[in-house]
UniProtKB/TrEMBL annotation:
The keyword Magnesium does not apply. This is HTH tetR-type domain-containing protein. PROSITE patterns: HTH_TETR_2 (PS50977). Residues 11-71 form the HTH tetR-type domain. Residues 34-53 bind DNA. It holds the Pfam family TetR_N. It comes from the Bacteria. GO terms for molecular function: DNA binding. Keywords: DNA-binding.
Amino acid sequence: MNVKGPWKIVDNNKTQILLTAQKLFSEKGYRNTSIRDIADCVGTNCSMINYHFKTKENLYIQIIENLWPSLDYISSDTETDADVLLKDFVFKSIEEAFNNTQLIQLCLETKIFPVSEKADSIIKKMTEKHFSHFKILAEKARYNHIKFLYTSIFALTIDIVSQNAKSADLSKDGHAGLEELLCYIETTFLVQ
């Protein structure tokens, strides 16, 4: 079975393990999710998970690494106007956060409760890559206080994504507040 999106895995059982682990890790946290929990939800045994990933840490790292393709997509530059490029980058980043609520939660948890040096290093590289691209675009658009601007935009985004994740079972709308947030960021932060 071929899976669409950032998952590059063909094996259906392995894909189910990854998707289930991602869901459980984001809901319960890395430390509160066992290999047995994942196996029970998938309907397989622990040895199958160990066969594919060897350790719970490797499984977690595989999930985090699946963020890379979506970050590369965000970084595509098609416009020449610096303001348009920056706005496009910010909007794509925010939409990606709304689309990957579970992965955002995993990254946040890893920053607060590090899983391992390797997982922390991967998240740090992704964050640095994202900020570096933002900084280049903001400098081209002649923005000041770039680190403050970046932190303000994405801290607000993460807060709203986290609130949506908590109420997702009630509303079933993972994009609640997206349009309002995009409008607010455009009128508050992306003006000179």
